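Archive entry. Fields below.
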Amino acid sequence: MKRSAGFAGFVALAAAAILASSACGRAKPALSVYTWSDYVKPELVRRFERERGCRVVLDTFESNEAMYAKLRAGATGYDLLTPSSYMVSLMHAQGLLRTLDHAQLPNLVHVDPDYLDLAIDKAMDHSVPYMITNTGIAYLAGRVRDVVPSWRMFGRADLRGRMTMFNDMRETIGAALKALGHSINSTSQAELAEAETLLLEWKRNLAKFDNEQYKIGLASGEFLLVHAWSGDVFQVRRENPDVRFFVPEEGTVISCDDLVIPADARRVALAHAFIDFLLDPAVAAENTAFVYYLCPNKDSYPLLPAEIRDNPGIFLAPELRARSEMIADIGAANALYVKVWDRLKASR
Amino acid sequence: MRRSRVPIVVTVLVLAFLYLPIVILVVNSFNPARYSGRWEGFSLTWYARLLESPEIWQAVKNTLVIAVSVTAVSVVLGTIAAYALHRWGASRLQRVHYTLIYQPLVVPEILMGISLLMAFVAAGVPLGLFTVFLAHVTFCVSYVAMTVLGRLQDFDFSVIEAARDLGAGPWQSARKVLVPLLRPGIVAGALLAFTLSVDDFVITFFVAGPGSTTLPLRIYSMIKHGAPPMINALSTLLLAVTLTAVLLSRRLTTRRADPPIR
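PREDICTED_STRUCTURE:
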């Protein structure tokens, strides 16, 4: 008898634990944020909780596509998301996002207008830029000679087998388009054909197409020159001081993750308050120094540590930024890119 | 005649495949390097970072709460299901039951994840720990039922009849005869359910809601930003805890088993 009583008690306890953990803290309003891992400095989240007398529940996703698939299937309960810009346009087109109430966002005045020029949602109607990163080239200074700040570095036969480019259709084709002086969002068949020829030439020199492992390969010296995102490179550099980064002079891709409120959010006012909190210049500066991506917040720039403020890989020179673009949703023309990409991946 | 070297070679290879990755993980948890994989000296950096990462501990807590409750519930349901399947397996209703129980073992996880999510949305169940619990029970029951069913295949029901002849009630005979004899199958099923629940990613990803991120979800999301080596440190700690628990339980059970032998 004793044992079965113990077992029943155990089941009851487990059930109680589930109920308790889903019901606790009901007294305080909870803001559910669905974001990338380690994308907000934890101390800042705690400060917001104290100021607002609320709880912030952080859940994490690992790709835009996975997050989108889940919301599309009907998952609800999230109040704030941080997808990349191209995903924001798609979600907006499908009516998944709420229009922002600018009256609740006085800190919008701090957003850097130079970046808004590049952004897709220039009026910040349904999204606010949160973090940006520049695409560029990272290399080991001790092992690569005669570096020219150009995409043409991928054509260097002496580095054959020791270079990587992104396994990302738009980024990689975009790099070739830029090297040829075209737009990253080109829909011209002739320009794309030119880019394909150039990429086929570069491919002979590449070890592989890769978005993640290149950091490890660069740090350990397996790869000498890689297509890279600035935020990642500056983290790798803390371990291998030989790592250098440049943004090619032809211009590059600037990517941005945005803050958006889903259409079915419940804590709308609190979500606005959190966006406004993140736009505060002092908060934005702390966040930038923590994540190594840049919050495009012009009044936070003077507050940044010199190491970041004077970094040309994070703060592009004005003429270089003028030549750079964000990846836009090009609609039906996307099929042209898919064809080029498929042929490139299949070639030997 | 010389003894063949093959068995020892195979044994060493198998052991290396099983344990070398774990050894590397433990060693790397003391390596402060994040990217290079080069040994940069002994350090407890990752353990310190781990201690100040409340969201990881929250994920650990979620994972354990779900795994323990899922194991408890699916062991009870799975054992009862296996008994019914075995006792009345020939009836048409039980054949349908068998197919239903078998489904989660063959349906691809992603399909199950999406369909469960759609079912929860249609039924208006808010996503959270409770939906993850329900989803995990859905597939864990099948694994428990299958292992217990295997044990029942060579179960001699005359033992139960003997117990009834000797005056045991149905409840008494189930508790004192059936369950103890089925225990190895039940324990194996419980371990399986616990493990499956702890490391499930695909289904959990779809049915998890705000505040119910489990450890596998957290680890995947750390690949892009975050610091994966913290997971090495966490795994090392979990390994130490599990090993201690196994050693302790073995010591306790052997001591308790002593008196009857005397």
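CURATOR_NOTE: DSSP finds eleven helices and no strands in chain B.
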